[in-house]
Amino acid sequence: MGYQERLTGHGIRGTMSTALNEIGYPKVWVDAQLSHVDPNKVSATYNHAAYVEQCRRMMQDWADRLDLFAQNQVEAASMPLTVHLEGVPAFPSEQTASAPSTPVAASPSLLVTKPGDAMPLVSAAAHRLPAVPPQRSAAPLVPSDIQRERMDLFDVFEAPHNLPVAAFAKMAGKSRRWISYEIQAGNLLALNVGNRGQRVPDWHLDPLKHELIQSVLKLTRGADPWQIYHALLQPRLVLRGHSALEGVTASNLDKRVMAVSTAVKESEWTPLRVGVV
Question: Which of 68, 77, 141, 185 has the largest CB neighbor count within 10 A?
C-alpha cells in the first residue's frame, strides 16, 4: 500500500475511492473508475466510456475540496455530498421511465450542499484557487557600492570617445596590427575591463593631446592605465580648474605633463576609485 506514512500507487487509489464513497457519490460511479482492473475488457471499456462525465465531475469536486482545505474552510471541504448535478443529464441506467426529460444546461455545475438543505451552502467554483499561483513581485535589488563602481567603470569604458582597437586603427589610418604594437610599446593609452577587449581614447587623434599622453606614459612606466586616464580628466587647481586635456597648447604642454605625472605617482599610494573622475 506504500511506504511508512506515505501512500503510493494502489494505496492512493484505495484511499480516494473510500473518500469518494464516504462523500456520498454512488458506488457505481466510483467502481466505474476502476474499470482498468476488470478482466473483461468489453465491460471495462463500456464502464469507462459510460461514466466519463461523472468522472470529470468527481475530479473537479475533489480539486474544489482541496482548494477549500487550502483556504481553511475545513467544514465545507469535508461536507458529505447530496448529489445534485445541475445541467448533467441522468444516464439511461439511472433514469426512471416516468421521469420527465429536462433541458440540459450549457455549463454543468456541482453544488456542495448539506444533506436535507434546500439551498447550497457554498458554490465550490467561487472558491477555486488559480492553477498557477500569482507570481510574487520581487523587491527591487539595490546594488552595493562595489557593484555601482563596477557599473560606472563599464559606462566609462564604453563611452563614445573610447574606441575599440579596430575602430581606432581605421580612424588613425593605420593597421590593427600596428596599433596593437604601439599599445604593447607603451605609446598608446589602452583601457581594458575583463575580457571585453581594449579601447583607445580618441584623444590620440589630436596631435597635441597625443604628445601629452605619450609624455605621461614615458614618465609613468608600469602605472595603471586607468589611473592615467582619470588623471588626464581630473580638473586641477594648478591648471586653473581645468583638466590637462582642456586647452593644451605647445607652450603649456610641459606644465600639464608634469601635473598629470605627479598626480599619477601620488595615486599609486592611494586606493583608486574607479569610475570617479
Answer: 68
Q: Residues 154-177: what's their mean pLDDT?
A: 94
| Domain spans in the chain, listed from the N-terminal domain onward | 10-127, 145-267
19: pLDDT strictly greater than 90: no
Residue 2: what pLDDT? 46
pTM: 0.50
Give the phi and the psi of residue 90 in degrees, each rounded to 5: -70, 145
**Distance between CA atoms of 256 and 56, rounded to whole angstroms?**
86
Q: Which three cell numbers stand for residue 29?
A: 460511479
C-alpha cell at 101: 426529460
Question: Mind spelling out the 3-state secondary structure of the chain?
Answer: CCCCCCCCCHHHHHHHHHHHHHHCCCHHHHHHCCHHHCCCHHHHHHHHHHCHHHHHHHHHHHHHHHHHHHCCCHHHHHCCCCCCEECCCCCHHHCCCCCCCCCCCCCCEECECCCCCCCCCECHHHHCCCCCCCCCCCCCCCCCHHHHHHHHHHHHHCCCCEEEHHHHHHHHCCCHHHHHHHHHCCCCCCEECCCCCEEEEHHHHCHHHHHHHHHHHHHCCCCCHHHHHHHHHCCEHHHCCECCCCCCCCCCHHHHHHHHHHHHHHHCCCCCCCCCC
Give CA–CA dist 172/168, Å, rounded: 6
Q: Are 248 and 212 in contact (CB under 8 A)?
A: yes
CA neighbor of 218 nearest in space, from 165, 179, 257:
257
Please give the biggest Cα pair distance in the chain. Answer: 118
For 25-29, the CB contacts below 8 A with 24+ separation are 25/54, 25/58, 25/81, 25/83, 26/83, 29/54, 29/55, 29/58
